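input
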Amino acid sequence: MCNASCPYCLSGRYRMAGGKFIAPDVFERILERLTKLQLMDNSSEVGLYNWGEPFLHPRLGELLEIANRFRISYTFSTNASKVPVIDGSFVKGLKMIIFSMPGFSQASYDRIHGFSFSKICTNIQTIVDQSRSAGYKGAFRVHYHVYQFNLSEIPRAEEFCRQLGIDLQLHYAILNHWDHLWAYVNNELSYSMLKEVSQDLFSFRLRDLVPDTTESYRCPQYDLLPIDEAGNVLLCCQVPPGRKYAAGNILQDDIEAILHFREHNNVCSKCVATGMARYLNSSLDFPVFWKPNESPLKEALRRVSRKLRRSLG
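output
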């Protein structure tokens, strides 16, 4: 479930029908099963998100009570469109909150997420303040998705994060819609979508990474275990929902068969062979022009931003 309208995301503007909130009893059974199989212990970290906005869940508090009983750490990635109930239970096992931002202006939000930019900023500050007041001492991070149109907004995002005492990480926005990316790889993407991609994304990454068919590449998704709201183990965290992209069900099927199928199936073989896997798994790489704590690059970017603002009046 997601309430954003991102045009390049599988759960955004072109989201597929369906999708449900995970039931607390199913969530508990999944954690019990993972513990029994020794796939999870007190050192494990669970990402309570995938293709959705976790703070929309109407029974989030119950899920966290269950997670806390298992003494696991958990992470949220949120678009900050909603402030959840934040109390001691919310922060007990919390390891990190990631705020996903498509820019730092209303114009950028109109173009991607579709939210009120000022409300998002207020919500981020509220979530940070309330979490710290509840005793949370861990990290907050803004994942700033870099598009062609939001480069000049980076210094303002950096200042916002500095004032709140939270981390900023820049990542290239990617074509994060499975069907659209397959169409691109097969030269079947519509002209209108291709034009949109070329105007918004840094499409050289598609050109440089997608054709890379290095046979020795081992997809890092094999070391993760994405599980949907019904207990289905997905091939990776990027695939659409549905049986076609599931390796089995963690509550019903043999785990050895599930793990074997995840590494030996036609979907993953084609994804790796076409370079799609390399492209999708490099989405968190820092842009070439920005590295954390490298002030000369950042200062150069600020100068460019100031010149752009002056030229635009």
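quick obs: The mean pLDDT is 89.
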